[in-house]
Amino acid sequence: MMTQFCNICCFIFILINIVFQISPSHADNAVPVLLWGGSINSDLTSAVNPFSKSTSEEFDLFLRKTLENSPPVLLYIRDNLCIEDLVKHKQHLQKVISSDSLRYFPAVEKAVNTIEDLPSYNQTYNDYVDSISDGQLLIVPISNLDVIPEMYKTIKDSSPNLIAILTGKACSYRRSERIKRDTDLYNTTGPFIVMSNRVLFYASKPLLLKPGEDEDKIELPLKPTSSDQPGKTPASSNLVMKFNTPNSSISTHTLEFMFEVETSGYYTLKTVNYKSSGTSVNEKNLTTNTDIVFPFNFSYHCSQIITFENSSISLNITNFQVQLDPKLAKDKDNIKAFDDAYDCVGFTTIPIWAGIFVTAILALIMIWALTMIIDIRTMDRFDDPKGKTITISAQE
């Protein structure tokens, strides 16, 4: 009883491994193999790793140890067999292998050829056999896995030491392999993210800076040196970013974003102090026409391009989002996340204006229709065939 319970637990564990298979994509001739029945040595349990691919040599060594007494072998071969097929028919397969010894290989190279090359077995191809003797290998091609239980039970009754093997010639299903790659520290594309002690800053593209009237716009590096500076009030804060550009005439660009508290409970960003050093030193305050105001414990987001400028110097930020004192993300250590955002969209957006315009046109059409209906006049005089004919003058 205990042995059957252990075998059932082993089968359930293997089915879970099949369903949550995490092995990479298999080669064209790498197929799953199920082997059950007979008396398989218990010391071979650790010989199979259910998460790896086995070579034909490894599988051949396993078969030689398992079949050293030449028990009868029943081989089911399917032209196309993948792990997904085993999962799909697991209820039918469990009827015949839940109480027997079971070994599972997720992927074996040239499994059919390895089994057919067993030297001590006589091969037989027959679909209608009631019993198999020792040293005999019965090969049964199948197209439907549901026929296995009935056929196996019939032969098992006359051959108690029967060992059954289910495999295929190929697997046409492939999974894409996941390859771990190192992060490119010098990548100049992608989102711009800065996370200081108090400020979480995001832009979907690198910051675009025009440092002077005769200068071209440049993309600032994605990895600046950031720090927090105190503002005018205890609640306010300044975010300082320092960008090094050694290959340019300006070696250092410094941006200081000034978050002030002008209204109780709300942060305001109006000014960015810009400093440059190199062949010449320049310092200017850049301002924006966009009203950047957001309450405490909220973030600010704007999908448009926000521009801070002063005369010939300008700074463009694409898909800007920022928050002061962000909270840690759930289930992630030391990673801060944005809270609900205040967007830069005004109250009367383009969809609202379109709705008002269409509603106004429909209202005018309805008013005109009601006016026409009210102005309809019905007849109030009728001819009497026995009386005098009604005469209507032009004035009436």
From TrEMBL:
Domain V-type proton ATPase subunit S1/VOA1 transmembrane: 346-384
GO CC terms: proton-transporting V-type ATPase complex
Renumbered residue ranges of the record's region Disordered: 218-237
Location(s), subcellular: Membrane
UniProt-recorded Gene Ontology molecular function terms: ATPase activator activity
Coiled coil spans: none
Residues that span the membrane, as ranges: 352-374
GO process annotations (BP): regulation of cellular pH
Span of the signal peptide: 1-27
PANTHER family, sorted: V-TYPE PROTON ATPASE SUBUNIT S1, VACUOLAR ATP SYNTHASE SUBUNIT S1
UniProt family annotation: Belongs to the vacuolar ATPase subunit S1 family.
Protein name: V-type proton ATPase subunit S1
Upper classification of the organism: Eukaryota, Metazoa, Ecdysozoa, Arthropoda, Hexapoda
